[in-house]
Amino acid sequence: MKPTKIIGALLLAGILAFVFFGWDAPKTAPHETVEGVAQIAQRLNIRNLVSAIYLGPRAADTFLEVMVVTLAVVGMRFAREEP
Fold it and tell me: How far apart, in whole angstroms, are the C-alpha atoms of residue 45 and residue 57?
């Protein structure tokens, strides 16, 4: 048998052993901000809570970051111009 087949078989056996006999999935703990994010998602009609986090309170922050980068690029172009 080729070594690659042996290594592949061992990896597959290890993965299957972990899947069937591995640790239990971690338990989720409720967090106080989940309710607020769920309300934002419901108000904005967003199905995914991760998207609600980015589109909700982080939207203004993201917009300001884009403005800072844009102003930096414009400033660098202005500074590089020859008089």
Answer: 15
